[in-house]
Amino acid sequence: MEIVKAVINLKEGTLQLEGPREFVEKYLNQYDSIIKNWEKLYPLTPEKKKIEVEKVTPKRTKPRAAKPKGISSCMGRIRNLIDENYFKDPKTGTEVKDWLEEQKGVTYMSGPISGALNKLVQSGKLRRFRESKKEPYKYCNP
């Protein structure tokens, strides 16, 4: 589908239309009579009178790869750790990250791990604490 953009410069401002060619042409035709009436009230200088139409190339995003069946999410893996009683002794987010990498062979950035741990704390599945402000949070069974 071809995407176009129309820019109409008027004395009081600019009108921009962007979308499929049929959409832009439809509204340009509707605005044509308005523009002609506007010109009677406010004569336009030659540089303001032009209507520019340009092609816009839509950004193509790479399609997301389907997750293979049997692979669970970061949250799912941490829930499995709760079920396996991994959190009977307090663990830091870094310890969870390292354990998942060493034992399960999966690598996660710290963001998804801390996000999942925080959601599990909010839902009451884990408890979070720290011994001092200089120490990282630790997570354990409630």
For the record, what CATH class of the largest domain applies?
A: Mainly Alpha
Biggest sheet: strand arrangement: 2-1-3
Fraction in helix: 40-55%
What is the total number of structural domains?
Answer: 2
- In whole angstroms, the N-to-C terminal distance is 55 Å
Residue-averaged pLDDT = 78
Name the CATH architecture of the largest domain. Orthogonal Bundle
> What is the count of DSSP helices, taking H or I runs of 4+ residues?
5
* Class inferred from helices and paired strands: alpha+beta
Number of strands: 6
Radius of gyration: 29 Å
Name the CATH homologous superfamily of the largest domain: Winged helix-like DNA-binding domain superfamily/Winged helix DNA-binding domain
Order of helices and strands: EEHHEHEHHEE
- Given as residue ranges, the uncertain stretches (5+ residues, pLDDT < 50) are none
CATH topology heading of the largest domain: Arc Repressor Mutant, subunit A
CA-based shape: elongated
Tell me the quaternary state: single chain
Strand content: 15-25%
Q: Describe the biggest sheet?
A: 3 strands, antiparallel
